TrEMBL record:
Residues 2-178 form the FAD-binding PCMH-type domain. Gene3D superfamilies: 3.30.465.10, FAD-linked oxidases, C-terminal domain, Uridine Diphospho-n-acetylenolpyruvylglucosamine Reductase, domain 2. GO terms for molecular function: cytokinin dehydrogenase activity; FAD binding. This is cytokinin dehydrogenase. The keyword Protein transport does not apply. Its EC number is 1.5.99.12.
Length: 552
């Protein structure tokens, strides 16, 4: 778990609010860090801004709802909008976004800053491949509209850019007619090569997609086929490996697929189509499990499981997740070394594995993927538990993650981290490889003072040298020689900048962001003091700590 104290938290009502704060940081002599925060699901505290400003994009002051353009088949949404709310808005018009994440309570800007993937990505690409246009606040405080054919360098930089080049305040998302129901199917394999062969067959680009969603997961001995990601099986009737006559030892693989259909569809024809497709697969005979449910319920399946875990106190625990893109040519080696090796027979959470087509990803974006036509996502979505004789503690799971990465490095498997986390710039340079020069050039163009998303630890803020002695390269953090004195200097400087903004009006707005003179700065002597600046409250965190637990 990573913790850091920002000096203030902005709850913006518009892109102009965000721009004013970023511009202040950019133009000030000392400067301060600014980080956007969505729904708080970053992996290792990347949304934090020590002694700076965190822009809380979700919640806060009321903004307009997603605006659906039915005839044009797209929706305009605020960057802090949750995907579940985007879905609810578009369904009123019988429409829905094409590409999803498994969990919908994530912000639009947050997933687009990474990529946004789920079982539809093999066909539609990640979410960043389904965006027409963005409004972005750059690290200079400029509000820029960008698209493939307009300010394209910024557009491509921001897509999967980890918040390094700008804060997404509006996104125009592509839509399609929404299905009404889903045929949800799971089949089991004991042979890894058969499992991956069928997955790759199902995502092959020849002809029309065979299913609408293709994922899979690994099941180890003593683990249930069901897990917290869904309520596919009834809790009263769990399925265990021991009930399957498998010759593959302690590991099984589950292929998860769906077929979408509409109200006017003939259920019998859907049955026939699914049955014909299943005949071409090489799963364990008798291991077909099928259910039928509304489209919305399928998309929101993980949230329903989340509510169950919350009720048992099993959700708000550390989640040392590890997400990797593995090249197709080495996925069998990964299976032998990790699934059948390092992990043993305890997992403490789902392990996803499914392939995607590289031609559905735009190489101009900032995301890094293996250089093969097909690559796999392997997501170890594990939770740290402290009870039991063989407890999978945070320390043990973190150690296993390191062993997995070391194994991949030693075997030259060529994995790339998705939702990457590194602690030195050299590691980031290795991660981006041949893309690093372009990534660096874009950073210098759009955020030259390194103000944005400092929690990623990719670039050291240019202003830290005025008040700190950096030990970034030595321990992967922005260290200070005299912490107490420096913190006071940074906080005072930030308050002066906020006060200066109180007398500032935007060219596009006649009203100041903060209360006009006399400016009121009130520091309350409370456990969580606040600085109230007009009608735009800042949460003051000098005595508090802003915490990002591992993503979930």
């Amino acid at each position: 778990m990573t913790a850091a104290a920002p000096a203030a938290v902005l709850r913006p009502g518009s892109a102009a609010d965000v721009a004013k704060v970023v511009r202040s940081a950019y133009e000030s002599d000392r400067g301060f860090a600014v980080s956007a925060r969505g729904h708080g699901h970053s992996i290792n505290g990347q949304a934090q801004a020590a002694n700076g400003v965190v822009v809380q994009m979700t919640g806060g002051r009321r903004r307009s709802s997603p605006e659906v353009f039915e005839k044009m088949m797209y929706v305009d949404v605020w960057g802090g909008e949750l995907w579940i709310d985007v879905l609810r808005s578009t369904l009123r018009y019988g429409l829905a976004p094409k590409s999803w994440t498994d969990y919908l309570y994530l912000s639009v800007g947050g997933t687009l800053s990474n990529a946004g993937i789920s079982g539809q990505a093999f066909n539609h690409g990640p979410q960043i491949s389904n965006v027409h246009e963005l409004d972005v606040v750059t690290g200079k405080g400029d509000v820029v509209t960008c698209a493939e054919d307009k300010n394209s360098e910024l557009f491509h930089a921001v897509m999967g850019g980890l918040g390094q080049f700008g804060i997404i305040t509006r996104a125009r998302i592509a839509l399609e007619p929404s299905p009404q129901r889903v045929r949800w199917i799971r089949v089991l394999y004991s042979n890894f090569s058969g499992f991956t062969h069928d997955q790759e067959y199902l995502i092959s680009p020849d002809g029309q997609p065979k299913f609408d969603y293709v994922e899979g997961f690994v099941i180890v001995d003593e683990g249930l086929i069901n897990n917290w990601r869904s309520s596919f099986f009834s809790p009263s009737n769990p399925i265990k490996i021991s009930s399957i006559n498998a010759a593959g030892g302690n590991v099984l693989y589950c292929l998860e697929i769906t077929k979408n259909y509409y109200q006017h569809s003939d259920p019998e024809s859907i049955d026939q189509e699914v049955e014909a497709l299943l005949k071409k697969l090489n799963y364990i005979p008798g291991s077909v499990f099928t259910t039928d449910l509304p489209y919305v319920d399928f998309l929101d399946r993980v949230h329903k499981a989340e509510l169950k875990l919350r009720s048992k106190g099993l959700w708000d625990v550390p989640h040392p997740w590890l997400n990797l893109f593995v090249p197709k040519s080495r996925i069998a080696d990964f299976d032998q070394g990790v699934f059948k090796g390092i992990l043993g027979n305890k997992t403490s959470g789902p392990i996803l594995i499914y392939p995607m087509n590289k031609n559905k990803w735009d190489d101009e974006t900032s995301v890094v993927t293996p250089n093969e036509d097909v690559f796999y996502l392997v997501a170890l979505l594990r939770s740290a538990l402290e009870n039991g004789e063989e407890a999978l503690t945070l320390e043990r799971l973190s150690d296993e993650n390191r062993r997995i990465l070391d194994f991949c490095d030693e075997q030259n498997i060529g994995v790339k981290q998705y939702l990457p986390h590194y602690t030195t710039q050299q590691e980031w340079m290795d991660h981006y490889g041949e893309k690093w020069p372009q990534f660096y050039k874009r950073k210098m163009e759009f955020d030259p003072r390194h103000i944005l998303a400092t929690g990623q630890r990719i670039f050291e803020p240019s202003f830290t040298s005025m008040t700190r002695k950096s030990n970034y390269e030595s321990n992967g953090s922005f260290g200070i020689e005299n912490g107490a004195i420096t913190k006071k200097i940074l906080r005072l400087d930030l308050h002066l900048e906020l006060a200066r903004l109180g007398n500032h009006t935007s060219p596009t707005s006649s009203s100041p962001l903060f209360l006009s003179p006399p400016l009121l700065l009130e520091e309350r002597k409370a456990p969580n003091p606040r600085v109230l600046v007009g009608s735009h409250p800042y949460e003051y965190a000098s005595d508090g700590v802003m915490v990002d637990m591992a993503s979930r």
